[in-house]
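Subject: Interface between my chains keeps coming out wrong

I've been trying for a while to get a sensible model of this assembly. When I model each chain on its own everything looks fine, but I need the whole thing in one frame so I can look at the contacts. Pasting all components below, labels as-is. Any help appreciated, I'm running out of ideas.
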Amino acid sequence: MEKTLVSIRFGQRGGFWNVSLSLNRGLKDRLTGHMTSVLTLGAALLVPLMGLALFLRARPILAISPVKELLLSTTWHPLEGAFGFYPFIVGTLWVTTVAMIIAVPPSLLTAVYLSEYAPSRVRALAKPLIDLLAGIPSVVYGVWGMLTVVPFVEKAVAPTLNRWLGFIPLFRADNPTGYGVLAGGLVLAVMVFPIIIAVAEEVIRAAPQGLREASLALGATRWQTVKHVVLRQTMPGVTAAVVLGFSRAFGETMAVLMVVGNVPRVPRSIFDPAYPLTALIANNYGEMLSIPSYDAALLGAALILLLVVLAFNTASRLVLVRLVRNESE
Amino acid sequence: MLETHIRIQDLNVWYGSHQALKGITADIPARGITAIIGPSGCGKSTLLKSLNRLLEEMDEVRMTGQILLNGEDIYRPDVDVTEVRTRIGLLAPKPFPLPMSIYENVAYGPRIHNRRNGGHMAPLVERHLLEAGLWEEVRDRLQAPASRLSTGQKQRLCLARALAVEPEVLLCDEPTSALDPISAQRIEAQLRDLKARMTIVVVTHLLRQAHRLADHVIFLWLGELVESGPAAQVFNAPSDERTRAYLAGDIG
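Reply #2:
Try treating it as a single job with all components included. I did that and got this:
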Protein backbone atom coordinates (compact mmCIF):
# COMPACT_ATOMS: atom_id res chain seq x y z
CA MET A 1 0.00 0.00 0.00
CA GLU A 2 1.23 3.39 -1.01
CA LYS A 3 1.54 5.81 1.88
CA THR A 4 3.13 8.87 0.27
CA LEU A 5 0.73 11.59 -0.77
CA VAL A 6 2.92 13.06 -3.46
CA SER A 7 5.79 11.46 -5.23
CA ILE A 8 7.99 12.90 -7.93
CA ARG A 9 9.39 10.42 -10.38
CA PHE A 10 12.12 10.89 -12.94
CA GLY A 11 12.13 8.49 -15.80
CA GLN A 12 13.19 8.16 -19.38
CA ARG A 13 10.55 7.54 -21.95
CA GLY A 14 11.17 7.84 -25.71
CA GLY A 15 14.40 9.68 -25.15
CA PHE A 16 12.89 12.53 -23.16
CA TRP A 17 13.24 13.16 -19.50
CA ASN A 18 9.87 13.26 -17.80
CA VAL A 19 8.95 14.57 -14.44
CA SER A 20 5.64 13.15 -13.40
CA LEU A 21 3.81 14.30 -10.38
CA SER A 22 1.73 11.48 -9.05
CA LEU A 23 -0.76 12.07 -6.34
CA ASN A 24 -1.96 9.42 -3.99
CA ARG A 25 -5.16 8.15 -5.59
CA GLY A 26 -7.22 8.63 -2.41
CA LEU A 27 -6.23 12.28 -2.35
CA LYS A 28 -6.96 12.61 -6.05
CA ASP A 29 -10.40 11.17 -5.46
CA ARG A 30 -11.12 13.61 -2.66
CA LEU A 31 -9.86 16.58 -4.67
CA THR A 32 -12.02 15.68 -7.65
CA GLY A 33 -15.00 15.28 -5.36
CA HIS A 34 -14.48 18.69 -3.81
CA MET A 35 -13.84 20.44 -7.08
CA THR A 36 -16.87 19.05 -8.85
CA SER A 37 -19.10 19.81 -5.88
CA VAL A 38 -17.92 23.42 -5.83
CA LEU A 39 -18.59 23.77 -9.55
CA THR A 40 -22.05 22.27 -9.18
CA LEU A 41 -22.86 24.55 -6.28
CA GLY A 42 -21.73 27.53 -8.34
CA ALA A 43 -23.99 26.57 -11.22
CA ALA A 44 -26.91 26.02 -8.88
CA LEU A 45 -26.37 29.41 -7.28
CA LEU A 46 -26.44 31.25 -10.62
CA VAL A 47 -30.21 31.55 -10.72
CA PRO A 48 -30.70 33.04 -7.25
CA LEU A 49 -27.71 35.34 -7.81
CA MET A 50 -29.10 36.56 -11.13
CA GLY A 51 -32.45 37.14 -9.50
CA LEU A 52 -30.83 39.08 -6.70
CA ALA A 53 -28.74 41.19 -9.08
CA LEU A 54 -31.75 41.98 -11.24
CA PHE A 55 -33.72 42.93 -8.16
CA LEU A 56 -30.99 45.26 -6.90
CA ARG A 57 -30.57 46.92 -10.28
CA ALA A 58 -34.33 47.26 -10.79
CA ARG A 59 -34.90 48.80 -7.35
CA PRO A 60 -34.57 52.44 -8.48
CA ILE A 61 -37.62 52.06 -10.72
CA LEU A 62 -39.63 50.77 -7.77
CA ALA A 63 -38.63 53.91 -5.88
CA ILE A 64 -40.17 56.08 -8.60
CA SER A 65 -43.45 54.30 -9.20
CA PRO A 66 -45.29 51.69 -7.16
CA VAL A 67 -45.38 48.10 -8.47
CA LYS A 68 -49.09 48.30 -9.22
CA GLU A 69 -48.61 51.31 -11.48
CA LEU A 70 -45.61 49.75 -13.22
CA LEU A 71 -47.63 46.64 -14.02
CA LEU A 72 -50.92 48.30 -14.95
CA SER A 73 -50.01 51.64 -16.55
CA THR A 74 -50.23 51.72 -20.34
CA THR A 75 -48.03 54.78 -20.76
CA TRP A 76 -44.51 54.06 -21.97
CA HIS A 77 -42.65 57.38 -22.27
CA PRO A 78 -39.14 56.84 -20.96
CA LEU A 79 -38.15 60.44 -21.65
CA GLU A 80 -40.90 61.66 -19.37
CA GLY A 81 -40.15 59.01 -16.79
CA ALA A 82 -43.36 57.05 -17.48
CA PHE A 83 -42.63 53.34 -17.46
CA GLY A 84 -45.87 51.36 -17.84
CA PHE A 85 -45.18 47.68 -18.51
CA TYR A 86 -48.80 46.83 -19.21
CA PRO A 87 -48.62 46.84 -23.06
CA PHE A 88 -45.53 44.64 -22.94
CA ILE A 89 -46.94 42.20 -20.42
CA VAL A 90 -50.16 41.94 -22.41
CA GLY A 91 -48.13 41.66 -25.63
CA THR A 92 -46.23 38.71 -24.20
CA LEU A 93 -49.45 37.09 -23.00
CA TRP A 94 -51.14 37.53 -26.40
CA VAL A 95 -48.30 36.05 -28.38
CA THR A 96 -47.78 33.20 -25.92
CA THR A 97 -51.49 32.39 -25.71
CA VAL A 98 -51.90 32.35 -29.49
CA ALA A 99 -48.81 30.14 -29.74
CA MET A 100 -50.21 27.69 -27.18
CA ILE A 101 -53.63 27.56 -28.84
CA ILE A 102 -51.92 26.66 -32.10
CA ALA A 103 -49.30 24.32 -30.61
CA VAL A 104 -51.04 22.29 -27.92
CA PRO A 105 -53.61 20.24 -29.87
CA PRO A 106 -51.25 19.00 -32.62
CA SER A 107 -48.41 18.45 -30.12
CA LEU A 108 -50.55 16.29 -27.85
CA LEU A 109 -52.00 14.34 -30.76
CA THR A 110 -48.47 13.74 -32.05
CA ALA A 111 -47.39 12.57 -28.59
CA VAL A 112 -50.38 10.23 -28.44
CA TYR A 113 -49.60 8.87 -31.91
CA LEU A 114 -45.94 8.29 -31.08
CA SER A 115 -46.61 6.57 -27.77
CA GLU A 116 -49.82 4.66 -28.53
CA TYR A 117 -50.11 4.04 -32.25
CA ALA A 118 -46.73 4.28 -33.95
CA PRO A 119 -44.81 1.07 -34.66
CA SER A 120 -41.47 1.17 -32.83
CA ARG A 121 -39.61 1.78 -36.10
CA VAL A 122 -41.63 4.88 -36.92
CA ARG A 123 -41.09 6.15 -33.40
CA ALA A 124 -37.36 5.53 -33.61
CA LEU A 125 -37.24 7.61 -36.78
CA ALA A 126 -39.69 10.39 -35.93
CA LYS A 127 -38.58 11.18 -32.39
CA PRO A 128 -35.02 12.31 -33.21
CA LEU A 129 -36.32 14.33 -36.16
CA ILE A 130 -38.78 16.14 -33.92
CA ASP A 131 -36.11 16.63 -31.27
CA LEU A 132 -33.95 18.29 -33.93
CA LEU A 133 -36.53 21.08 -34.14
CA ALA A 134 -35.57 22.06 -30.59
CA GLY A 135 -31.96 22.51 -31.60
CA ILE A 136 -32.50 24.99 -34.43
CA PRO A 137 -31.14 28.43 -33.44
CA SER A 138 -34.01 30.79 -32.76
CA VAL A 139 -32.69 33.39 -35.21
CA VAL A 140 -33.25 30.84 -37.96
CA TYR A 141 -36.87 30.55 -36.85
CA GLY A 142 -36.98 34.36 -36.96
CA VAL A 143 -35.76 34.48 -40.53
CA TRP A 144 -38.19 31.74 -41.52
CA GLY A 145 -40.91 33.78 -39.85
CA MET A 146 -40.03 36.92 -41.78
CA LEU A 147 -39.70 35.17 -45.13
CA THR A 148 -42.58 32.73 -44.89
CA VAL A 149 -44.92 33.25 -41.98
CA VAL A 150 -45.32 37.03 -42.22
CA PRO A 151 -46.19 37.01 -45.96
CA PHE A 152 -48.51 34.05 -45.36
CA VAL A 153 -50.34 35.98 -42.64
CA GLU A 154 -50.38 39.13 -44.73
CA LYS A 155 -51.55 37.62 -48.01
CA ALA A 156 -53.64 34.65 -46.97
CA VAL A 157 -54.74 34.52 -43.35
CA ALA A 158 -55.51 38.17 -42.68
CA PRO A 159 -57.68 38.86 -45.76
CA THR A 160 -59.59 35.59 -45.37
CA LEU A 161 -60.30 35.86 -41.67
CA ASN A 162 -61.06 39.57 -42.00
CA ARG A 163 -63.64 38.88 -44.69
CA TRP A 164 -65.47 36.07 -42.91
CA LEU A 165 -64.90 36.82 -39.23
CA GLY A 166 -63.98 40.50 -39.37
CA PHE A 167 -67.09 41.41 -37.38
CA ILE A 168 -65.35 39.85 -34.36
CA PRO A 169 -62.76 42.39 -33.12
CA LEU A 170 -60.30 39.57 -32.45
CA PHE A 171 -60.05 38.78 -36.18
CA ARG A 172 -60.26 42.27 -37.63
CA ALA A 173 -57.21 43.07 -39.78
CA ASP A 174 -56.37 46.77 -39.54
CA ASN A 175 -52.67 46.16 -39.73
CA PRO A 176 -51.67 45.58 -43.35
CA THR A 177 -48.14 44.28 -42.78
CA GLY A 178 -48.46 40.73 -41.48
CA TYR A 179 -46.05 41.51 -38.66
CA GLY A 180 -47.99 40.94 -35.46
CA VAL A 181 -49.40 38.63 -32.81
CA LEU A 182 -50.42 35.83 -35.17
CA ALA A 183 -47.08 35.71 -36.96
CA GLY A 184 -45.30 35.64 -33.59
CA GLY A 185 -47.68 32.97 -32.31
CA LEU A 186 -47.15 30.77 -35.36
CA VAL A 187 -43.37 30.94 -35.13
CA LEU A 188 -43.46 30.28 -31.37
CA ALA A 189 -45.87 27.39 -31.87
CA VAL A 190 -43.38 25.61 -34.11
CA MET A 191 -40.65 26.29 -31.56
CA VAL A 192 -42.58 24.73 -28.66
CA PHE A 193 -43.77 21.65 -30.58
CA PRO A 194 -40.66 19.60 -29.84
CA ILE A 195 -40.74 20.44 -26.14
CA ILE A 196 -44.37 19.54 -25.59
CA ILE A 197 -44.14 16.47 -27.82
CA ALA A 198 -40.99 15.13 -26.17
CA VAL A 199 -42.18 15.51 -22.59
CA ALA A 200 -45.79 14.49 -23.23
CA GLU A 201 -44.73 11.43 -25.25
CA GLU A 202 -42.48 10.26 -22.43
CA VAL A 203 -45.15 10.83 -19.80
CA ILE A 204 -47.86 9.07 -21.81
CA ARG A 205 -45.67 6.13 -22.70
CA ALA A 206 -44.79 5.67 -19.03
CA ALA A 207 -48.41 4.74 -18.27
CA PRO A 208 -48.33 1.07 -17.24
CA GLN A 209 -48.97 -1.37 -20.09
CA GLY A 210 -51.25 -3.34 -17.77
CA LEU A 211 -53.56 -0.36 -17.60
CA ARG A 212 -53.88 -0.21 -21.38
CA GLU A 213 -54.45 -3.96 -21.55
CA ALA A 214 -57.13 -3.71 -18.85
CA SER A 215 -59.12 -1.36 -21.04
CA LEU A 216 -58.41 -3.15 -24.34
CA ALA A 217 -59.35 -6.49 -22.79
CA LEU A 218 -62.82 -5.10 -22.10
CA GLY A 219 -63.26 -4.54 -25.81
CA ALA A 220 -62.40 -0.85 -25.79
CA THR A 221 -60.93 0.58 -28.97
CA ARG A 222 -57.50 2.08 -28.85
CA TRP A 223 -58.86 5.60 -28.98
CA GLN A 224 -61.32 4.89 -26.15
CA THR A 225 -58.41 3.53 -24.15
CA VAL A 226 -56.30 6.60 -24.84
CA LYS A 227 -59.07 9.05 -24.10
CA HIS A 228 -60.70 7.53 -21.04
CA VAL A 229 -57.79 5.73 -19.42
CA VAL A 230 -54.28 6.67 -20.58
CA LEU A 231 -54.78 10.43 -20.85
CA ARG A 232 -56.77 10.53 -17.63
CA GLN A 233 -54.03 8.67 -15.82
CA THR A 234 -51.27 10.88 -17.25
CA MET A 235 -53.08 14.21 -17.02
CA PRO A 236 -50.71 15.81 -14.45
CA GLY A 237 -47.66 14.99 -16.57
CA VAL A 238 -49.29 16.12 -19.80
CA THR A 239 -50.22 19.40 -18.11
CA ALA A 240 -46.62 19.79 -16.98
CA ALA A 241 -45.47 19.26 -20.58
CA VAL A 242 -47.79 22.03 -21.76
CA VAL A 243 -46.60 24.37 -18.99
CA LEU A 244 -42.98 23.71 -19.94
CA GLY A 245 -43.84 24.66 -23.51
CA PHE A 246 -45.61 27.76 -22.22
CA SER A 247 -42.59 28.96 -20.27
CA ARG A 248 -40.37 28.35 -23.29
CA ALA A 249 -42.67 30.48 -25.45
CA PHE A 250 -42.96 33.10 -22.72
CA GLY A 251 -39.21 33.65 -22.58
CA GLU A 252 -38.39 33.33 -26.29
CA THR A 253 -36.85 36.52 -27.63
CA MET A 254 -35.11 36.58 -30.97
CA ALA A 255 -37.61 34.78 -33.20
CA VAL A 256 -40.52 36.71 -31.73
CA LEU A 257 -38.98 40.12 -31.96
CA MET A 258 -38.27 39.59 -35.64
CA VAL A 259 -41.90 39.01 -36.60
CA VAL A 260 -44.12 40.57 -33.98
CA GLY A 261 -44.05 44.21 -35.08
CA ASN A 262 -42.77 45.78 -31.87
CA VAL A 263 -45.31 48.53 -31.29
CA PRO A 264 -45.84 49.31 -27.60
CA ARG A 265 -49.63 49.22 -27.72
CA VAL A 266 -52.12 46.79 -26.29
CA PRO A 267 -53.21 44.56 -29.21
CA ARG A 268 -56.94 44.28 -29.97
CA SER A 269 -56.78 41.70 -32.74
CA ILE A 270 -54.49 38.77 -33.59
CA PHE A 271 -53.27 40.79 -36.59
CA ASP A 272 -52.21 43.80 -34.50
CA PRO A 273 -48.54 44.27 -33.74
CA ALA A 274 -47.40 43.61 -30.19
CA TYR A 275 -44.28 44.27 -28.17
CA PRO A 276 -43.40 41.43 -25.80
CA LEU A 277 -41.24 41.99 -22.71
CA THR A 278 -38.35 40.02 -24.19
CA ALA A 279 -38.31 42.14 -27.33
CA LEU A 280 -38.46 45.31 -25.23
CA ILE A 281 -35.31 44.36 -23.36
CA ALA A 282 -33.41 43.03 -26.36
CA ASN A 283 -34.22 46.01 -28.58
CA ASN A 284 -33.47 48.71 -26.05
CA TYR A 285 -30.90 47.59 -23.55
CA GLY A 286 -27.62 49.31 -24.27
CA GLU A 287 -29.33 52.17 -26.11
CA MET A 288 -30.49 55.41 -24.56
CA LEU A 289 -29.23 54.35 -21.18
CA SER A 290 -28.59 58.03 -20.43
CA ILE A 291 -32.28 58.42 -19.76
CA PRO A 292 -32.74 58.29 -16.00
CA SER A 293 -34.16 55.04 -14.63
CA TYR A 294 -34.35 53.49 -18.12
CA ASP A 295 -31.81 50.88 -17.19
CA ALA A 296 -33.70 50.05 -14.00
CA ALA A 297 -36.99 49.79 -15.91
CA LEU A 298 -35.59 47.32 -18.45
CA LEU A 299 -34.04 45.22 -15.71
CA GLY A 300 -37.39 45.31 -13.94
CA ALA A 301 -38.91 43.82 -17.07
CA ALA A 302 -36.18 41.17 -17.03
CA LEU A 303 -37.00 40.40 -13.41
CA ILE A 304 -40.68 39.90 -14.23
CA LEU A 305 -39.71 37.50 -17.04
CA LEU A 306 -37.33 35.59 -14.84
CA LEU A 307 -39.88 35.19 -12.06
CA VAL A 308 -42.70 34.06 -14.34
CA VAL A 309 -40.60 31.57 -16.29
CA LEU A 310 -39.04 30.28 -13.08
CA ALA A 311 -42.43 29.78 -11.46
CA PHE A 312 -43.85 27.83 -14.42
CA ASN A 313 -40.71 25.79 -14.87
CA THR A 314 -40.47 24.89 -11.21
CA ALA A 315 -44.13 23.92 -11.02
CA SER A 316 -43.97 21.62 -14.01
CA ARG A 317 -40.66 20.05 -12.99
CA LEU A 318 -42.05 19.34 -9.53
CA VAL A 319 -45.02 17.55 -11.07
CA LEU A 320 -42.76 15.54 -13.38
CA VAL A 321 -40.36 14.58 -10.61
CA ARG A 322 -43.26 13.42 -8.47
CA LEU A 323 -44.58 11.35 -11.34
CA VAL A 324 -41.25 9.66 -11.87
CA ARG A 325 -41.12 8.84 -8.17
CA ASN A 326 -44.63 7.36 -8.28
CA GLU A 327 -43.72 5.27 -11.29
CA SER A 328 -40.71 3.80 -9.60
CA GLU A 329 -42.65 2.80 -6.49
CA MET B 1 -68.23 -35.95 -25.23
CA LEU B 2 -67.79 -32.40 -23.98
CA GLU B 3 -68.89 -29.45 -26.07
CA THR B 4 -65.81 -27.54 -27.33
CA HIS B 5 -65.87 -23.80 -26.72
CA ILE B 6 -62.44 -22.80 -27.95
CA ARG B 7 -60.37 -24.87 -30.33
CA ILE B 8 -56.68 -24.06 -30.69
CA GLN B 9 -55.22 -25.41 -33.95
CA ASP B 10 -51.51 -25.64 -34.67
CA LEU B 11 -50.71 -22.36 -32.91
CA ASN B 12 -47.16 -21.06 -33.30
CA VAL B 13 -45.97 -17.79 -31.76
CA TRP B 14 -42.63 -16.05 -32.18
CA TYR B 15 -41.23 -13.08 -30.26
CA GLY B 16 -38.67 -11.82 -32.74
CA SER B 17 -36.70 -14.94 -33.55
CA HIS B 18 -37.62 -16.80 -30.35
CA GLN B 19 -40.42 -19.29 -30.79
CA ALA B 20 -42.58 -19.17 -27.65
CA LEU B 21 -45.30 -21.60 -28.70
CA LYS B 22 -44.76 -24.61 -30.95
CA GLY B 23 -47.69 -26.18 -32.75
CA ILE B 24 -50.21 -26.06 -29.94
CA THR B 25 -53.43 -27.93 -30.61
CA ALA B 26 -55.98 -28.21 -27.83
CA ASP B 27 -59.68 -27.96 -27.07
CA ILE B 28 -61.11 -25.92 -24.25
CA PRO B 29 -64.50 -27.35 -23.24
CA ALA B 30 -67.51 -25.14 -22.59
CA ARG B 31 -68.04 -24.14 -18.96
CA GLY B 32 -65.90 -25.43 -16.16
CA ILE B 33 -62.36 -24.36 -15.40
CA THR B 34 -59.47 -25.22 -17.67
CA ALA B 35 -56.08 -24.77 -16.03
CA ILE B 36 -52.98 -24.11 -18.11
CA ILE B 37 -50.04 -25.31 -16.05
CA GLY B 38 -46.29 -25.47 -16.52
CA PRO B 39 -43.12 -23.80 -15.28
CA SER B 40 -42.62 -20.07 -15.82
CA GLY B 41 -41.46 -19.13 -19.29
CA CYS B 42 -43.14 -22.11 -20.89
CA GLY B 43 -45.63 -19.98 -22.83
CA LYS B 44 -48.69 -20.13 -20.56
CA SER B 45 -49.42 -16.40 -20.63
CA THR B 46 -48.60 -16.21 -24.33
CA LEU B 47 -51.19 -18.89 -25.01
CA LEU B 48 -53.73 -17.10 -22.85
CA LYS B 49 -53.15 -13.72 -24.50
CA SER B 50 -53.51 -15.25 -27.96
CA LEU B 51 -57.04 -16.28 -26.98
CA ASN B 52 -58.30 -12.67 -26.71
CA ARG B 53 -55.87 -11.26 -29.29
CA LEU B 54 -54.09 -9.15 -26.70
CA LEU B 55 -50.88 -10.65 -28.00
CA GLU B 56 -50.94 -8.45 -31.09
CA GLU B 57 -50.62 -5.34 -28.91
CA MET B 58 -46.96 -6.26 -28.43
CA ASP B 59 -44.15 -5.32 -30.79
CA GLU B 60 -42.44 -7.93 -32.93
CA VAL B 61 -44.92 -10.74 -32.41
CA ARG B 62 -45.73 -13.18 -35.19
CA MET B 63 -48.16 -16.06 -35.11
CA THR B 64 -49.60 -18.79 -37.30
CA GLY B 65 -52.47 -21.17 -36.70
CA GLN B 66 -56.10 -20.78 -35.80
CA ILE B 67 -58.19 -20.13 -32.74
CA LEU B 68 -61.83 -21.02 -33.14
CA LEU B 69 -64.44 -19.61 -30.78
CA ASN B 70 -67.64 -21.61 -31.27
CA GLY B 71 -66.15 -22.76 -34.56
CA GLU B 72 -65.35 -19.23 -35.82
CA ASP B 73 -61.73 -18.19 -36.34
CA ILE B 74 -61.16 -15.09 -34.22
CA TYR B 75 -58.12 -14.15 -36.35
CA ARG B 76 -60.06 -13.93 -39.62
CA PRO B 77 -59.33 -10.51 -41.17
CA ASP B 78 -62.96 -9.41 -41.14
CA VAL B 79 -63.38 -10.12 -37.42
CA ASP B 80 -63.67 -7.05 -35.19
CA VAL B 81 -61.07 -7.43 -32.46
CA THR B 82 -63.09 -5.42 -29.93
CA GLU B 83 -65.97 -7.85 -30.48
CA VAL B 84 -63.65 -10.78 -29.68
CA ARG B 85 -62.46 -9.11 -26.50
CA THR B 86 -66.02 -8.33 -25.49
CA ARG B 87 -66.84 -12.01 -25.60
CA ILE B 88 -63.58 -13.12 -23.98
CA GLY B 89 -62.76 -11.26 -20.76
CA LEU B 90 -59.44 -11.10 -18.92
CA LEU B 91 -58.34 -11.01 -15.31
CA ALA B 92 -54.67 -9.95 -15.24
CA PRO B 93 -52.04 -11.07 -12.68
CA LYS B 94 -51.75 -7.62 -11.19
CA PRO B 95 -54.89 -5.56 -10.67
CA PHE B 96 -54.96 -2.34 -12.68
CA PRO B 97 -57.99 -0.32 -11.64
CA LEU B 98 -58.84 2.34 -14.20
CA PRO B 99 -58.19 5.92 -13.03
CA MET B 100 -61.80 6.55 -12.00
CA SER B 101 -64.26 5.72 -9.23
CA ILE B 102 -65.18 2.20 -8.11
CA TYR B 103 -68.59 2.62 -9.72
CA GLU B 104 -67.15 3.93 -12.99
CA ASN B 105 -64.70 1.03 -13.18
CA VAL B 106 -67.57 -1.44 -13.33
CA ALA B 107 -69.68 0.77 -15.61
CA TYR B 108 -66.75 1.34 -18.01
CA GLY B 109 -67.26 -1.80 -20.11
CA PRO B 110 -71.02 -1.37 -20.65
CA ARG B 111 -70.46 2.34 -21.36
CA ILE B 112 -67.84 1.90 -24.08
CA HIS B 113 -70.11 -0.63 -25.76
CA ASN B 114 -73.00 1.82 -25.58
CA ARG B 115 -75.02 -0.58 -23.52
CA ARG B 116 -77.10 1.90 -21.61
CA ASN B 117 -78.97 -0.95 -19.98
CA GLY B 118 -82.19 1.05 -20.24
CA GLY B 119 -80.73 3.69 -17.93
CA HIS B 120 -80.31 1.12 -15.18
CA MET B 121 -76.56 1.19 -14.76
CA ALA B 122 -76.69 1.23 -10.95
CA PRO B 123 -78.38 -2.19 -10.56
CA LEU B 124 -75.93 -3.65 -13.10
CA VAL B 125 -72.95 -2.30 -11.17
CA GLU B 126 -74.38 -3.69 -7.94
CA ARG B 127 -75.03 -7.11 -9.48
CA HIS B 128 -71.48 -7.49 -10.77
CA LEU B 129 -69.89 -6.21 -7.58
CA LEU B 130 -71.98 -8.83 -5.77
CA GLU B 131 -70.80 -11.54 -8.17
CA ALA B 132 -67.19 -10.53 -7.54
CA GLY B 133 -67.80 -10.59 -3.78
CA LEU B 134 -66.94 -6.92 -3.31
CA TRP B 135 -70.33 -5.27 -2.89
CA GLU B 136 -70.54 -5.37 0.91
CA GLU B 137 -67.14 -3.69 1.28
CA VAL B 138 -67.72 -0.82 -1.17
CA ARG B 139 -71.48 -0.17 -1.18
CA ASP B 140 -71.03 3.00 0.89
CA ARG B 141 -68.18 4.45 -1.15
CA LEU B 142 -68.93 3.68 -4.77
CA GLN B 143 -67.79 7.15 -5.82
CA ALA B 144 -64.37 6.84 -4.14
CA PRO B 145 -61.36 6.46 -6.46
CA ALA B 146 -60.66 2.79 -7.14
CA SER B 147 -57.00 3.39 -6.37
CA ARG B 148 -57.84 3.57 -2.64
CA LEU B 149 -58.86 -0.08 -2.42
CA SER B 150 -56.53 -2.75 -1.07
CA THR B 151 -54.80 -5.03 -3.60
CA GLY B 152 -57.19 -7.88 -2.89
CA GLN B 153 -60.20 -5.59 -3.29
CA LYS B 154 -58.74 -4.16 -6.49
CA GLN B 155 -58.48 -7.64 -7.98
CA ARG B 156 -62.12 -8.35 -7.15
CA LEU B 157 -63.01 -4.98 -8.69
CA CYS B 158 -61.18 -6.06 -11.85
CA LEU B 159 -63.23 -9.27 -11.78
CA ALA B 160 -66.47 -7.27 -11.46
CA ARG B 161 -65.30 -5.00 -14.28
CA ALA B 162 -64.64 -7.98 -16.55
CA LEU B 163 -67.99 -9.60 -15.66
CA ALA B 164 -69.90 -6.38 -16.40
CA VAL B 165 -69.24 -6.87 -20.12
CA GLU B 166 -70.90 -10.32 -19.74
CA PRO B 167 -68.25 -12.36 -21.54
CA GLU B 168 -68.79 -16.01 -22.42
CA VAL B 169 -65.17 -16.83 -21.60
CA LEU B 170 -63.06 -15.48 -18.73
CA LEU B 171 -59.29 -15.73 -19.03
CA CYS B 172 -57.37 -15.50 -15.74
CA ASP B 173 -53.61 -14.99 -15.90
CA GLU B 174 -52.19 -16.07 -12.53
CA PRO B 175 -55.09 -14.18 -10.95
CA THR B 176 -53.90 -14.60 -7.37
CA SER B 177 -50.16 -14.16 -7.78
CA ALA B 178 -50.17 -10.61 -6.36
CA LEU B 179 -52.61 -11.41 -3.55
CA ASP B 180 -52.42 -12.47 0.09
CA PRO B 181 -53.76 -15.97 0.88
CA ILE B 182 -57.16 -14.77 2.10
CA SER B 183 -57.78 -12.59 -0.96
CA ALA B 184 -56.55 -15.42 -3.17
CA GLN B 185 -59.05 -17.77 -1.55
CA ARG B 186 -61.88 -15.34 -2.23
CA ILE B 187 -60.96 -15.03 -5.92
CA GLU B 188 -60.83 -18.82 -6.23
CA ALA B 189 -64.24 -19.08 -4.58
CA GLN B 190 -65.72 -16.55 -7.03
CA LEU B 191 -64.25 -18.45 -9.98
CA ARG B 192 -65.79 -21.71 -8.73
CA ASP B 193 -69.17 -19.97 -8.47
CA LEU B 194 -68.87 -18.61 -12.00
CA LYS B 195 -67.82 -21.78 -13.77
CA ALA B 196 -71.37 -23.12 -14.00
CA ARG B 197 -72.29 -20.42 -16.49
CA MET B 198 -69.09 -19.49 -18.30
CA THR B 199 -65.90 -20.99 -19.60
CA ILE B 200 -62.95 -20.10 -17.40
CA VAL B 201 -59.32 -20.53 -18.39
CA VAL B 202 -56.80 -20.10 -15.56
CA VAL B 203 -53.07 -19.85 -16.06
CA THR B 204 -51.27 -20.87 -12.92
CA HIS B 205 -47.85 -22.00 -11.85
CA LEU B 206 -49.29 -23.17 -8.53
CA LEU B 207 -49.96 -26.89 -8.79
CA ARG B 208 -52.10 -26.85 -5.68
CA GLN B 209 -54.26 -24.11 -7.15
CA ALA B 210 -54.67 -26.17 -10.30
CA HIS B 211 -55.69 -29.14 -8.16
CA ARG B 212 -58.25 -27.04 -6.32
CA LEU B 213 -59.77 -25.40 -9.38
CA ALA B 214 -59.27 -27.38 -12.55
CA ASP B 215 -61.80 -29.53 -14.37
CA HIS B 216 -59.48 -29.75 -17.36
CA VAL B 217 -55.75 -29.33 -17.60
CA ILE B 218 -53.35 -28.25 -20.34
CA PHE B 219 -49.69 -28.88 -19.51
CA LEU B 220 -47.10 -26.82 -21.39
CA TRP B 221 -43.38 -27.47 -21.37
CA LEU B 222 -40.94 -25.17 -23.18
CA GLY B 223 -43.55 -23.92 -25.61
CA GLU B 224 -44.95 -27.35 -26.42
CA LEU B 225 -48.18 -28.91 -25.37
CA VAL B 226 -47.23 -32.09 -23.56
CA GLU B 227 -50.59 -33.28 -22.36
CA SER B 228 -54.17 -32.12 -21.99
CA GLY B 229 -57.38 -33.68 -20.75
CA PRO B 230 -59.69 -33.99 -17.76
CA ALA B 231 -58.02 -32.96 -14.52
CA ALA B 232 -58.45 -36.34 -12.89
CA GLN B 233 -56.76 -38.08 -15.77
CA VAL B 234 -53.81 -35.66 -16.09
CA PHE B 235 -53.19 -35.48 -12.35
CA ASN B 236 -53.72 -39.13 -11.49
CA ALA B 237 -52.66 -40.99 -14.60
CA PRO B 238 -50.41 -38.77 -16.72
CA SER B 239 -49.52 -40.39 -20.00
CA ASP B 240 -46.30 -38.44 -20.57
CA GLU B 241 -43.13 -38.88 -18.58
CA ARG B 242 -42.55 -35.10 -18.41
CA THR B 243 -46.02 -34.51 -16.94
CA ARG B 244 -45.34 -37.13 -14.30
CA ALA B 245 -41.97 -35.57 -13.45
CA TYR B 246 -43.42 -32.06 -13.28
CA LEU B 247 -46.31 -33.13 -11.06
CA ALA B 248 -43.89 -34.97 -8.79
CA GLY B 249 -41.77 -31.84 -8.51
CA ASP B 250 -38.75 -33.39 -10.23
CA ILE B 251 -38.63 -30.76 -13.01
CA GLY B 252 -39.84 -27.17 -13.49
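Reply #3:
Confirming on my end. The first strand of chain A starts at residue 6 and ends at 13.
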